[in-house]
């Protein structure tokens, strides 16, 4: 959960920085920032973790 929030914040920062760079006419950095932001935002984040426990052996009596 915390990792997802950090990734969203990083994506938003990249997008905002890309827009600021485009407005300052730094075209390459602006495009790279926007592409990085979009890439971070569309990356799949696993939300479920599946744990498989080994089967228990029958107790010897």
Summarize this, please?
This protein has a domain of 41 residues.
Describe this structure in words.
There is one protein chain. The protein is built from 2 helices and no strands. The protein is mainly α and 61 residues long. Helix 1 runs antiparallel to helix 2. Helix content is 62%, strand content 0%. The chain has a domain of 41 residues.
Q: How much is the radius of gyration in Å?
A: 21 Å
Largest beta-sheet details: none
Which structural class fits the helix and strand makeup?
mainly alpha
List segments where confidence is low: pLDDT < 50 over at least 5 consecutive residues: none
How much of the sequence lies in strands comes to: under 5%
Order of helices and strands: HH
Taken from the alpha-carbon principal axes, the silhouette is: rod-shaped
Helix content, binned percent:
55-70%
> What gap, in angstroms, lies between the N and C termini?
46 Å
* Number of continuous helical runs: 2
Average pLDDT works out at 88
The total beta strand count reads: 0
Topology:
Layout (H helix, E strand, L loop, with lengths): L1 H22 L3 H16 L19
Structure keywords:
61 residues, rod-shaped, mainly alpha
